[in-house]
């Protein structure tokens, strides 16, 4: 049983490569063989036509659940598909035991349509704090990793998000209107400002990776499912970025956030986007 933070530190000091290998194997075994080969019976709707799940999602999550608990005995797994089947599973994010937060296919819509813009997201957290993350885009063979306090890396190269060039429009990836309430739509209208170029987001995990790379300036998201955000937010933080909810507090993976929230390349950009969202809310 994992009892203390030192034990997790030891795990992260010696076994992160084994986690990366498990993520790669899950994708190679359960996701990529189905990419651009999905049959109609392998695709289902969850809450509606814009919320899809496939056999790849289910089987990759099952693969990772077994592999990750084996790597870290005593840990729990909070996976998107498991929570859909049993919402009480999400409670582990708020507990004190180590928890793996898993999105087996982030960007299922893209996956279903044969678009390579999807990824597998894994984060390791305890007590509401994300300690490490793995973002793997199997169709692009790119792996981004982060360990709290040790930096963010893409395929072994350190990531530094930097700051937007002065005078250039900010590019912001925002929640699609399908996934927003009327109040959130009003807040997101704040992005329709001079000097800002908002667009609808794709895979949340890959948008966070673009921020960490300095290729995207910010996001503005209206939902708080930990599997979509935990891995990417740590990646952004460790690359030099910041994130805030409408109350001006950092996003909490345990929930209870005031939405929408932003993540950005640097502190100043995060505060600027937050001001636009707050002013329109």
From TrEMBL:
Top EC group: hydrolase
Gene3D superfamilies xrefs: 3.40.190.80, Fructose-1,6-Bisphosphatase, subunit A, domain 1
InterPro entries: Inositol_monoP_metal-BS (IPR020583), Inositol_monophosphatase-like (IPR000760), Inositol_monophosphatase_CS (IPR020550)
EC number: 3.1.3.25
Keywords from the UniProt entry: Hydrolase, Magnesium, Metal-binding
One Pfam family from the record: Inositol_P
Annotated catalysed reactions: a myo-inositol phosphate + H2O = myo-inositol + phosphate
Domain of life from the UniProt record: Bacteria
Hydrolase is among the record's keywords: yes
SUPFAM superfamilies in the cross-refs: Carbohydrate phosphatase
Name by which UniProt lists this protein: inositol-phosphate phosphatase
Phylogenetic placement of the source organism: Bacteria, Bacillati, Actinomycetota, Actinomycetes, Kitasatosporales
């Amino acid at each position: 049983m994992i009892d203390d933070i030192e034990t997790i530190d030891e795990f992260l000091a010696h076994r992160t490569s084994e986690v990366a290998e498990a993520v790669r194997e899950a994708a190679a075994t359960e996701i990529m063989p189905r990419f651009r080969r999905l049959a109609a019976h392998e695709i289902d709707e969850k809450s509606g036509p814009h919320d899809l799940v496939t056999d790849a999602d289910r089987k990759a999550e099952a693969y990772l659940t077994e592999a990750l608990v084996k790597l870290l005995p005593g840990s729990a797994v909070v996976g998107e598909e498991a929570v859909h089947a049993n919402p009480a599973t999400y409670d582990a994010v708020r507990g004190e035991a180590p928890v793996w937060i898993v999105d087996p296919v982030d960007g299922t819509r893209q996956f279903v349509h044969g678009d390579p813009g999807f990824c597998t997201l894994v984060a390791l957290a305890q007590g509401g704090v994300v300690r490490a993350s793995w973002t793997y885009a199997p169709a692009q063979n790119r792996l981004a990793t982060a360990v709290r306090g040790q930096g963010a890396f893409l395929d072994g190269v350190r990531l530094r998000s930097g700051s937007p060039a002065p005078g250039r429009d900010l590019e912001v990836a925002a929640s699609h209107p399908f996934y927003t309430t009327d109040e959130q739509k009003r807040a997101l209208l704040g992005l329709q400002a001079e000097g800002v170029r908002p667009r609808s987001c794709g895979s949340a995990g890959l948008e966070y990776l673009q921020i960490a790379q300095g290729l995207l300036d910010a996001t503005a998201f209206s939902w708080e499912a930990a599997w979509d955000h935990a891995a990417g937010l740590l990646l952004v933080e460790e690359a030099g970025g910041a994130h805030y909810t409408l109350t001006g507090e950092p996003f909490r993976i345990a929930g209870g956030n005031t939405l929408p929230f932003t993540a950005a390349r640097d502190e100043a950009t995060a505060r600027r986007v937050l001001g636009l969202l707050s002013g329109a809310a």
